[in-house]
Amino acid sequence: SAVISQKPSRDICQRGTSLTIQCQVDSQVTMMFWYRQQPGQSLTLIATANQGSEATYESGFVIDKFPISRPNLTFSTLTVSNMSPEDSSIYLCSVVQSILNYEAFFGQGTRLTVV
Amino acid sequence: AQKVTQAQTEISVVEKEDVTLDCVYETRDTTYYLFWYKQPPSGELVFLIRRNSFDEQNEISGRYSWNFQKSTSSFNFTITASQVVDSAVYFCALSVRNAGNMLTFGGGTRLMVKP
């Protein structure tokens, strides 16, 4: 399975600031996704990170708030912009190595607290 | 649209008891994948199993077993002889090939195993 390194693992941020989360994979992967898990809740897909093009966002998530980059097949970033306490969540990167052998793995997650 | 329901929000058992976590899914697609993940208190998501829609064979891995029944759209997870280390939140998830391959998660079941 792919080894996924997600940074930072946790952070406490002031409201109004932005945080960029990095997801690095040790091998090329077909698909990369970003999920959010609000406290005590399940996971919700934010967007699909597309290599070399704009991310595909789910309903309720917009590029201005959650800009995503994916410059190559092993790396992606998610920025949480102009943060408010409601953005306090765990953010998780997920990868699928091959759609033929579809297994989705997750990074360790970034636990974000906005004060 | 896809939907996953985990009716049990919280289960408490005593160590060595068997426990079954229920998962019911909805999709109109014939090609899909079902997953179970474990989320311990540390927050990372640990991949447990993937099952594709064409493979209804039940699977056993040590103390874990999974029962996939297309007739009832269920993919239940049983832990035999539970241990304290099994305490975690367990998520069932669904991925549909024709819907971008992202995961739709159930609400999760918090399992507490008491010594």
Structural write-up:
The complex is a heterodimer of chains A (115) and B (115). Chain A is built from no helices and 11 strands. With 115 residues, chain A is mainly beta. In chain A, strand 9 and strand 10 form a beta hairpin. The relative contact order of chain A is 0.33. With 115 residues, chain B is mainly β. Chain B contains no helices and 12 strands. In chain B, 32% of the residues are buried. The model of chain B has no long low-confidence stretch (mean pLDDT 93). Chain A binds chain B through residues 1, 31, 33, 35, 41-45, 48, 56, 90, 92, 94, 96, 99, 102-109, 111, and chain B through 33, 35, 37, 43-45, 47, 50, 52, 91, 93, 95, 97, 100-108.
Order of secondary-structure elements of chain B: EEEEEEEEEEEE
The low-pLDDT segments of chain B are none
* Helix amount of chain B: under 10%
Shape of chain B: globular
- How far apart the termini of chain A lie comes to 36 Å
Work out the radius of gyration of chain B: 14 Å
Query: How many helices of chain A in DSSP terms?
Result: 0
Largest sheet report of chain B: 6 strands, mixed
Shape of chain A: globular
Summary keywords:
heterodimer, A: 115 residues, mainly beta, 7-stranded mixed sheet, 11 strands, B: 115 residues
Q: In terms of topology, how is this protein built?
A:
The complex is a heterodimer of chains A (115) and B (115).
Chain A: E1 4-7, E2 10-13, E3 19-25, E4 31-37, E5 43-49, E6 56-57, E7 68-72, E8 75-80, E9 89-96, E10 104-106, E11 110-114
Parallel strand pairs in A: 2-11
Antiparallel strand pairs in A: 1-3, 3-8, 4-5, 4-9, 5-6, 7-8, 9-10, 9-11
Chain B: E1 3-5, E2 10-14, E3 19-21, E4 24-26, E5 32-39, E6 46-52, E7 59-61, E8 64-69, E9 74-79, E10 88-96, E11 103-105, E12 109-114
Parallel strand pairs in B: 2-12
Antiparallel strand pairs in B: 1-4, 3-9, 5-6, 5-10, 7-8, 8-9, 10-11, 10-12
